[in-house]
Amino acid sequence: MAVPGKVAAFHLPPLPTVGEIIKLFRLKAQKQLSQNFLLDLRLTDKIVRQAGKLKNAHVCEVGPGPGGITRSILSAGVEQLLLIEKDARFIPGLQMLSEAAPGRVRIVHGDILTYKMDKAFPKHLKKNWEDEPPDIHIIGNLPFSVSTPLIIKWLENVSKKDGPFIYGRTQMTLTFQKEVAERLTANPGGKQRSRLSIMSQHLCNVENCFVIPGQAFVPKPEVDVAVVHFTPLVQPKIQQPFELVEKVVRSVFQFRRKYCFRGVETLFPEGGRLKRTEELMMTADVDPTLRPFQLSMSHFRNLCNTYRKMCDEDPSLFAYNYREELKQKKVVKNLLKSTSQPEQMEEEKQL
């Protein structure tokens, strides 16, 4: 009987090491794809243990590459493993692993950002949102270039209970640059507190599990890597649509080092901006002289709830885009400048 927490439920037959697979298929990490291989199976086992009990579970691994984490997942005794790999060079090595674990592995050559995760697992695994998380896990050593847009996409899926979260509160165990992991888990007042902190923590329980030094990877990245575990919350801390929360949070953090009212101002058109900003801050009971990173989750909840009421009263308000207004101003300014130049030249000629 396996000891709880130990990765020893299933034994793969003798296989070439991950390093030998890399040599065999002449695989090289591509810098433009920010690829870094993790070859130490003790570390890949440790990552997989953070996901929890995987015996007889269904797992999706994102970007398996040469298959280091893949081996650890299979050794945990999973029932089914879905591998989604964008880089075709890794497919032959993954097929070797698939043949070593007959009937357990399905390989998809595709991009995780466009892959339809709502049909990735059997329907019978679905659970109600209020129940315990389903026996489904997402695990991945994410390329740095993909990690932030991907987690934002999945957080939106959590909010809407679609994509991989159509099955319930699917758990995720993912790697990020250490700095990004610190942002995801930062508390109010922390120097890494950011938009990512609010967007992730209002929807999930986020745990920074452990740090892997950069020298453990091939090639060695310039930064260390952290493993982060996400469990979606039964009730989000801010009960408003994802797009609204993201707009408010993004606006507040637009001027990170200034008073928070400076960012809140960008939610409103120029006409009546000051009055509406004061109304929002007052109703939400937020001190306008606090810096964005000092605001608590309840501050953001109040701001979002109040902004929602203001949008309900003025439906055109949510469509307002501060950056677009700046662009339009710039276009008008350039037009005025270009039309005034010929007149100026004509005057100079007459003189």
Automatic annotation (TrEMBL):
<dbReference type="GO" id="GO:0000179">
    <property type="term" value="F:rRNA (adenine-N6,N6-)-dimethyltransferase activity"/>
</dbReference>
<feature type="binding site">
    <location>
        <position position="63"/>
    </location>
    <ligand>
        <name>S-adenosyl-L-methionine</name>
    </ligand>
</feature>
<protein>
    <recommendedName>
        <fullName>rRNA adenine N(6)-methyltransferase</fullName>
        <ecNumber>2.1.1.-</ecNumber>
    </recommendedName>
</protein>
<dbReference type="InterPro" id="IPR001737">
    <property type="entry name" value="KsgA/Erm"/>
</dbReference>
<dbReference type="GO" id="GO:0003677">
    <property type="term" value="F:DNA binding"/>
</dbReference>
<feature type="binding site">
    <location>
        <position position="85"/>
    </location>
    <ligand>
        <name>S-adenosyl-L-methionine</name>
    </ligand>
</feature>
<keyword id="KW-0694">RNA-binding</keyword>
<keyword id="KW-0238">DNA-binding</keyword>
<dbReference type="GO" id="GO:0006391">
    <property type="term" value="P:transcription initiation at mitochondrial promoter"/>
</dbReference>
<keyword id="KW-0805">Transcription regulation</keyword>
<feature type="domain" description="Ribosomal RNA adenine methylase transferase N-terminal">
    <location>
        <begin position="43"/>
        <end position="234"/>
    </location>
</feature>
<keyword id="KW-0804">Transcription</keyword>
<dbReference type="GO" id="GO:0034246">
    <property type="term" value="F:mitochondrial transcription factor activity"/>
</dbReference>
<keyword id="KW-0496">Mitochondrion</keyword>
<dbReference type="GO" id="GO:0005759">
    <property type="term" value="C:mitochondrial matrix"/>
</dbReference>
<feature type="binding site">
    <location>
        <position position="38"/>
    </location>
    <ligand>
        <name>S-adenosyl-L-methionine</name>
    </ligand>
</feature>
<dbReference type="InterPro" id="IPR029063">
    <property type="entry name" value="SAM-dependent_MTases_sf"/>
</dbReference>
<keyword id="KW-0698">rRNA processing</keyword>
<keyword id="KW-0949">S-adenosyl-L-methionine</keyword>
<comment type="similarity">
    <text>Belongs to the class I-like SAM-binding methyltransferase superfamily. rRNA adenine N(6)-methyltransferase family. KsgA subfamily.</text>
</comment>
<dbReference type="Pfam" id="PF00398">
    <property type="entry name" value="RrnaAD"/>
</dbReference>
<feature type="binding site">
    <location>
        <position position="36"/>
    </location>
    <ligand>
        <name>S-adenosyl-L-methionine</name>
    </ligand>
</feature>
<feature type="binding site">
    <location>
        <position position="141"/>
    </location>
    <ligand>
        <name>S-adenosyl-L-methionine</name>
    </ligand>
</feature>
<dbReference type="GO" id="GO:1904047">
    <property type="term" value="F:S-adenosyl-L-methionine binding"/>
</dbReference>
<keyword id="KW-0489">Methyltransferase</keyword>
<dbReference type="InterPro" id="IPR023165">
    <property type="entry name" value="rRNA_Ade_diMease-like_C"/>
</dbReference>
<dbReference type="InterPro" id="IPR020598">
    <property type="entry name" value="rRNA_Ade_methylase_Trfase_N"/>
</dbReference>
<feature type="binding site">
    <location>
        <position position="111"/>
    </location>
    <ligand>
        <name>S-adenosyl-L-methionine</name>
    </ligand>
</feature>
<keyword id="KW-0808">Transferase</keyword>
<keyword id="KW-0809">Transit peptide</keyword>
<dbReference type="InterPro" id="IPR011530">
    <property type="entry name" value="rRNA_adenine_dimethylase"/>
</dbReference>
<dbReference type="GO" id="GO:0003723">
    <property type="term" value="F:RNA binding"/>
</dbReference>
